[in-house]
Amino acid sequence: MSTATVQQGTKWWNGGRSPFNATYGKVMMWYFLMSDAFTFGAFLISYGTIRFSQNFWVDPNKVFNSFPFAEGFNLPLAFVSLMTFILIFSSVTMVLAVFEGHRMNRKGVERYMLLTIIGGIGFLSCQAWEWHHLLTGEHPVLVNGVIEHWNTTVSHNPFGKEVLFNGQMIHTPGPIAFGSYFFEITGFHGFHVFSGVIINIVMYIKTKLGHFDQRGHYEMVEKAGLYWHFVDLVWIFVFLCFYLV
Amino acid sequence: MSDHTPISPEITFVPEHASDTKRIWRTFWLLSILTVIELIIGLSIYKIKIGNEEAMPSLVLAFKGMVCILALAKAYYIVSIFMHLGDEVRNLIMTIVVPLCLFVWFITAFLVDGTSWKNLRNRYSRPLDAPTEQVSPVKE
Predict the structure, then answer these.
(1) Which of A1, A10, A103 sits opposite B1 (nearest CB)?
(2) How many Å apart are CA A195 and CA A124, to the nearest integer?
(3) Where are the domains of chain A?
(4) Residues of B with CB below 8 A from A243's CB?
(5) Which residues of B, range 43-82, sit inside 8 Å of A by Cβ?
(6) How many Å apart are CA A91 and CA A200, to the nearest integer?
(7) A-B contacts at Cβ under 8 angstroms
(8) Do residues B36 and A100 make contact, with C-beta atoms less than 8 angstroms apart?
(9) Do A233 and B75 touch (CB under 8 A)?
(10) CATH number for the A22-137+183-244 domain, one of 1.20.120.80, 3.40.50.300, 1.10.10.60, 1.20.1530.20?
(11) Which of A37, A93, B15, B23 is the most exposed place for a label (fewest CB within 10 A)?
(12) B7-16 pLDDT tens trace
């Protein structure tokens, strides 16, 4: 389906047309996403650099092994899998909304945008629970021969190396950078999800009011879709860097 | 309703859009399967490390490498099919792909840097170890 080769003789850079065969708005959205990709990339690479410079790092399966309503169960990777699937699913509903937009099917666009918004709010709720659990959950940690109970915050990390103390294995304080990086990167990502949900709500309202019917095309929904997929893409790499490797 | 008039005079031609959602759902299942495989590998790493953090380092590293490749595959499918970059003209595709290839250099450079810091620190500054200085015995 290489319609691009149909235009073999087209002089793309001689003016009078978009050299990318796309509207200015769409090209600018791609450029913005590139810049945002570099920002997230810089944060994640900075995390990687600090992590590689340390002899010991936190084991994510010890930190992230809880699930709502399942206190006390050891379920590594379970909750974050749920979050990943929610975001993938909301990405699919977004593509379907854009698809319906190409067919000028207003009802279809409304339905799929609504599902996408619900998915986004679901993801944010999960992330809020994860943060709350970390910031308020207490873990025993051996500090100067005394067992204290610490939360996981930007200044305290109770998941350091384990040592034998009075017959049981207990953590010592871990690298503080872990908390800072985790909350900062997931917070920045969550902020993008939040703004994405707001943008999607605006698109939903505009669709319902018939603005795109009047205009004759749903390209704004498509651009909002590009932003939403970018958010999903970033999550894949955040998930990779913090939970899997 | 595939080849309608372009929405703006900037557009030279309108690519034909798929008439059904088969491709979209197929990609969804593909992404889900890749995610499940990632999770299985992640849980294998967890199982290997139970009881002994340093167990089977080469296998754990191989697993982590596989997980990175799966993540890149997922990224490719999302960008190419969900964001429709695969359907755009080559100029636009290159605008995105070329900087991302340079990005690989960015990642490699900084991870090597971080490793180098660790090695330098381990070699030259060990304040908590037994003192490495040795005082020569006084000659009586």
Answers:
(1) A103
(2) 11
(3) 22-137+183-244
(4) 42
(5) 43, 45-46, 49, 53, 64, 67-68, 71, 74-75, 78-79, 82
(6) 12
(7) 163
(8) no
(9) yes
(10) 1.20.120.80
(11) B23
(12) 888 888 887 7
Query: Which one of A7, A35, A49, A220 makes the best mutation probe of the B interface by having the most chain B beta carbons within 10 Å?
Result: A49
Report the C-alpha gap between B10 and A120 in whole angstroms.
33
Q: Are residues B20 and B83 in the same domain?
A: yes
Same domain membership, residue B96 and residue B45 = no
Residue B33 lies in a domain: yes
Q: Same structural domain for residues B25 and B77?
A: yes
My answer on whether B21 and B46 are in the same domain is yes
Q: Which two tokens stand for residue A244?
A: 């899997």
Choose the closest CB to A53 out of B21, B42, B117. B117
pLDDT at A3 over 60: no
φ/ψ region of B3 (left if φ > 0, alpha if ψ in -120 to 50, else beta) reads: beta
Q: Let me know if residue B131 belongs to a domain.
A: no
Which residue segment(s) compose the domain that B109 sits in? 89-118
pLDDT at A4: 47
Q: ipTM, 2 decimals?
A: 0.82
Contact A85/B64, CB-based, under 8 Å?
A: no
Q: pLDDT tens, A56-99?
A: 898 888 888 888 888 778 888 889 999 999 999 999 999 999 99
pLDDT in tens, A166-216: 888 889 999 999 999 999 999 999 999 999 999 999 999 999 999 999 999
Instruction: Please check whether residues B69 and B83 belong to one and the same domain.
Output: yes
Q: What is the mean pLDDT of residues A27-32?
A: 94
**A165 to each of A57, A62, A162, B103, how far by Cα in Å?**
21, 19, 9, 46
CA separation, residue A71 to residues A66, A74, A138, A243 (Å): 7, 9, 13, 20
Question: Is residue B39 domain-resident?
Answer: yes
B40 plus B102 within the same structural domain: no
Instruction: Please state, for a pLDDT cut of 70, what percent of chain B lies above it.
Output: 87
